[in-house]
Design brief:
- The complex is a heterodimer of chains A (about 190) and B (about 200).
- Helices cover about 75% and strands about 0% of the residues of chain A.
- In chain A, helix 1 packs parallel to helix 8.
- Chain B is an all-alpha fold.
- Chain B has one domain.
- Chain B is built from 8 helices and 2 strands.
- In chain B, strands 1-2 form a two-stranded antiparallel sheet.
- Classes of the chains: A mainly alpha (about 190), B mainly alpha (about 200).
- Chains A and B meet through helix 2, helix 4, helix 7 and helix 9 of A and helix 2, helix 4 and helix 8 of B.
């Protein structure tokens, strides 16, 4: 159990997937303009990433390795993720319409969120077993959601402040992300 | 819609990742040195050229409903090629770039060009577009890599250029430095465009 707690802290704070590993930065800057969209995206990513982590692990260990097709990993994983996203979208639409209303527009974007494919590959390269993979995927996604929500909270305030013209929009967003990353590097040494 | 324009727009007008704010993950992650930037940029360019070409050639045969999935399969095939070639011939670079090589698949620049350009234009124009955007991306990564390498370790392409007694600004090599460097560079570009717009108008 202690191992899992350490893994969790490490994935959320110390090696935050967005700020330290640089995965999933496009949605990070794209949808962090308001709190609502950031929360929606964060939840959608937690949901899909945990499932994707589990399924890609199974595909790798029970399909690709027995057939000796490890070199097709990239192509297999992205197909699994694209199908999974489509499938999740349909299921949610059917059984939980309110949830679909909230997450719907973010789901298709997740296919090209490199955090999902990135975590799936990290799971394999680190040689995690199934339980650890699921746990690590979940924790990474929580880290993603945390950073995204923090960022959105800050960016909402930018609307009210006078920012020099050249810095408006993405430029100030990047510098803010840098400052958040600097704050997060204070967690190094925690694990 | 001239060939020259399609090629040259990637260098300033929609220069990725500054104008086209896509593909930020590799930009931020691998630019700790100039050579890594070039390696990543060229790998992406290769995939971009061929994915644009093939998407454009197949655009009449791909049904609209499944086009995104088809584009991803086309892109992923070329990424696997790049992955295997780099592993065989550029192992050092392959090790350094690590996870970001397979992640070229989800680089939104490539899917973005397939969707926005190659699926609507002929193969020659799409090739020019892919080459222009790809080289623009490579140059951006090279410039950002140079700045971070120069300030962070005092070298460019591994050759020491700063004066003796220069205190390396290691912040630039760390993740926060990547965000700040890219942000400042983007602001500088905005400043130049605004100046130009003022002169022109």
């Amino acid at each position: 159990m202690a191992d899992f707690i350490l893994l969790m802290i490490s994935a959320i704070l110390v090696n935050n997937i967005l700020l330290i590993r640089f995965l999933g930065n496009c949605p990070f800057l794209g949808v962090s303009r308001s709190m609502d969209t950031a929360t929606g995206m964060g939840l959608a990513v937690i949901f899909v990433l945990t499932l994707a982590g589990m399924i890609t692990w199974l595909v790798h260990n029970y399909i690709l390795i027995p057939l000796g097709l490890e070199y097709l990993r990239t192509i297999a994983f992205i197909l699994v993720i694209a199908t999974l996203v489509q499938f999740v979208e349909m299921v949610i639409q059917k059984i939980a319409p309110p949830l679909y209303e909230a997450l719907g527009i973010y789901l298709p974007l997740i296919t090209t969120n490199c955090a999902v494919l990135g975590v799936a590959i990290i799971n394999i390269e680190e040689g995690y077993d199934l339980i650890t993979s699921i746990f690590f995927s979940f924790a990474s996604a929580c880290g993603f959601a945390l950073a995204l929500v923090l960022m959105a909270g800050m960016r909402e305030r930018f609307a009210l402040t006078g920012i020099p013209k050249p810095f408006e929009g993405t430029a100030i967003g990047l510098i803010t992300a840098g400052l958040i990353a600097l704050a997060f590097s204070g967690f190094i040494g925690l694990v | 819609m001239s060939l020259k324009h399609e090629f040259s727009k990637g260098f300033w007008e929609i220069l990725p990742p500054f104008r086209l704010v896509l593909g930020l993950c590799p930009t931020l992650a691998v630019t700790t040195s100039a050579i890594n930037g070039i390696g990543m940029g060229l790998a992406t360019t290769f995939v971009l050229i061929f994915s644009n070409l093939f998407v454009s050639l197949l655009r009449k045969f791909i049904p609209t409903q499944v086009r995104i999935a088809s584009f991803i399969v086309i892109i992923a095939s070329f990424v696997v090629i790049v992955e295997l070639v780099m592993q065989a011939y550029f192992y050092q670079l392959f090790k350094v770039l690590g996870i970001f090589i397979p992640l070229i698949v989800v680089n939104c620049i490539i899917l973005g060009r397939a969707e926005a350009f190659a699926s609507k234009n002929g193969p020659i124009l799409s090739l020019a577009d892919g080459l222009g955007i790809g080289l623009g991306f490579t140059i951006s990564l090279f410039v950002l890599g140079c700045i971070r390498e120069l300030l962070g370790s005092g070298t460019i392409l591994g050759i020491y250029v700063m004066w003796s007694g220069f205190e390396p600004f290691t912040f630039m090599l760390k993740p926060p430095g990547a965000f700040v460097a890219l942000g400042i560079l983007l602001a500088l570009m905005n400043l130049i465009s605004q100046r130009q717009a003022r002169k022109g108008g």
